[in-house]
Each structure stands twice: as C-alpha cells, then as structure tokens.
C-alpha cells in the first residue's frame, strides 16, 4: 500500500506540474460546479424535447438522488479514510502547483469526479437510443472536470480514479432504478 501511495504522489506531482499560470484561469472555470449550469440546462432541454415531461420529471428525481448519493458517499469516505489532500500534505505541497483558492481537509475520494462520471453514465444511458454519441461527449466532459482537480492541486489521481469508478457504479445503478420506475409507471 505504501508503494501505491508513493506512486499516487509522484503521478500527482507530474500531472500537476504540467500546468502553467497562463492556463490556470481555464482550469479554475472548468472545476467550478456553477460553470456546468449551461450544460445541465442544455441536457434538461434535450430531455424534455426527446422524452416528454413525465419521463423527464422522473429522470430529474433520479438525478437529484444521484447527486445526493455521490456527494454524501464521498463525504463518508473522506471522514473514514481521512487522507489529506495534496494541498495539505507535507512533502507534496512544497513541490506542487496549488492553484485552488480553497482546499478542504480530506480528499479520498473526489466528489467532483464521482458526480460528473455518475451524471455522464446516467444521462448517457438515458440518451443512448436518441443521441448515441452523447455518452462519449459526457464521459470526455467528466474526465476533463476530474483532471481539473489534479491540476488545481486538490486531489491525487487515485482520488479521481476511485471517485470516477464509484460515479460510474452509482450512475449505472440509478439508471437501472430510473428504467424500473419508467416501466412501472408506463412513462416511456
């Protein structure tokens, strides 16, 4: 386990130090959860346009559950493992580019990675028959958001990887729940 943590630290420092001050502003914007509102608005519009209001409302309830689940589960893991973020880790901070203005105490695992990958899998699966390429766009978006957390100095790559894996799992499970509800209530 010690070797894995050391590898995670080295990979973090490598990826984090690829950054440049001239691009910091862009990665701050990418990482800001409020900047995704236009994307979410577009997805909401497409949801209502392609599926109608009943299906869309059921889907929105599942999305609310999904975001709550990913956020709260990441908090449970952070409180349990208490792994310091790179921006708070002695022996790492001195060699890293810490771009983020705020740095929480613990970072395992990344809620940003978990929630963006969960939404990508969930909505990508919802739209798969109507807009097949949507899932690839959403997965690329999730990967960029996840990487932004390493760039800003607030998460190790391992935090991102585990967050993404949990997000994929939660997204798929909630998609199955949504499909069950849609069929049970004859909303399709």
From TrEMBL:
InterPro entries according to UniProt: PAP2/HPO (IPR000326), PAP2/HPO_sf (IPR036938)
Domain Phosphatidic acid phosphatase type 2/haloperoxidase: residue ranges: 59-175
Keywords: Membrane, Transmembrane, Transmembrane helix
Parts of the chain that traverse the membrane: 25-48, 106-128, 135-154, 160-177
Name the UniProt record assigns to this protein: Phosphatidic acid phosphatase type 2/haloperoxidase domain-containing protein
């Amino acid at each position: 386990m010690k070797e894995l943590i050391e590898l995670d630290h080295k990979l973090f420092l490598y990826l984090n130090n690829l950054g440049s001050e001239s691009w910091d502003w862009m990665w701050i914007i990418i990482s800001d959860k409020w900047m995704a509102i236009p994307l979410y608005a577009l997805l909401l519009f497409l949801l209502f346009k392609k599926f109608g209001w009943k299906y869309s409302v059921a889907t929105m309830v599942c999305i609310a559950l999904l975001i709550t689940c990913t956020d709260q589960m990441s908090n449970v893991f952070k409180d349990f493992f208490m792994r310091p973020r790179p921006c708070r880790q002695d022996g790492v901070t001195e060699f890293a580019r810490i771009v983020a203005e705020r740095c929480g105490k613990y970072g395992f695992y990344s809620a940003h990675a978990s929630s963006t990958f969960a939404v990508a899998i969930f909505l990508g699966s919802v739209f798969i028959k109507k807009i097949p390429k949507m899932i690839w766009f959403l997965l690329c978006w999730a990967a960029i958001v996840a990487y932004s957390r390493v760039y800003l100095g607030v998460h190790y790559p391992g935090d991102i990887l585990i967050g993404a894996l949990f997000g994929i799992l939660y997204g798929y499970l909630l998609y199955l729940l949504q499909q069950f509800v849609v069929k049970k209530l004859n909303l399709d």
